[in-house]
Amino acid sequence: MIRVLLADDQALIRAGFRALLDAEDGIEVVAEAADGRQTIDLAVQHRPDVALVDVQMPVLDGIEATRQISADPRLAGVHILILTNYGLDEYVFNALRAGASGFLVKDTEPAELLQGIQVVARGDALLSPSITRKLISEFVARAPEGAERLDDDLAALTNREREVVALVARGLTNDEIAARMVISPATAKTHVSRAMTKLGARDRAQLVVFAYESGLVSARTGP
């Protein structure tokens, strides 16, 4: 059972999402939040598998709520899926930097929403390579903050780990990485896990962000 927290300041939108999710086997809506502070409090109380978080909310916006949830060790199992009206914009990329696992626009098809929740719940990133390239080219192409730290982080990775992170950024699954590198899926998973640990990444979405920000993958050539 995937346990979901809905966070949006519009009750009508929350009601629509709840009706859709309640009708789906294997998904349970455990709480609803109307602002960012309430989102954090309810995440602590219910420990959902997935939090659907609107970018723009009162008290604390979705980005700050995402940042605080991602930084709380008690909430390590909470995967955040950002909801936005605006598609690809700086809010979305800032949310990914803050720890979100992916994003969806609010008018997405119901089947895509359900699939997105399942993808994020199992710890994968909801980021297609083409969307990632566009986000990076628009926002990471600017001089990144903490470039020296990124160099240090990159130096901490082995050559194998760098290769794996680059393949993650290209949208490959562990099985696909294993086939590309001629290693077992278990070994590929181990490389991904070690890279995440060294980089302090919560999930694969943050590996994607790091790969582009550090220059390991080019926004121009991309996946």
What do you see in this structure?
- With 223 residues, this protein is α/β, with parallel strands linked by helices.
- It is built from 11 helices and 5 strands.
- A 5-stranded parallel beta sheet has the order 2-1-3-4-5, sandwiched between helices.
- Helix 8 crosses helix 11.
- It starts with a strand and ends in a 10-residue tail after the last helix.
List the topology elements.
Blueprint: E1 2-7, H1 11-22, E2 27-33, H2 36-46, E3 50-54, H3 62-71, E4 79-84, H4 90-98, E5 102-105, H5 110-121, H6 129-140, H7 147-156, H8 159-169, H9 174-181, H10 185-199, H11 204-213
Parallel strand pairs: 1-2, 1-3, 3-4, 4-5
Helix pairs in contact: 2-3, 3-4, 8-10, 8-11, 9-10, 10-11
Supply the key terms.
5-stranded parallel β-sheet; 5 strands; 54% helix; alpha/beta; 223 residues; 13% strand
Give the structure's gist in a few sentences.
Helices cover 54% and strands 13% of the residues. With 223 residues, the chain is of the alpha/beta class.
Percent helix among the residues? 40-55%
Low-confidence stretches: none
Largest sheet: 5 strands, parallel
Mean pLDDT: 85
Structural class category? alpha/beta
Q: Count the helices. How many?
A: 11
Order of helices and strands: EHEHEHEHEHHHHHHH
Question: How big a fraction of the residues is strand?
Answer: 5-15%
Distance between the termini: 33 Å
Which descriptor suits the 3D outline?
globular
Which radius of gyration do the C-alpha atoms yield?
A: 17 Å
Strand order of the largest sheet: 2-1-3-4-5
Give the oligomer, counting copies of the same chain as homo and different chains as hetero. single chain
Structure summary, number of beta strands: 5
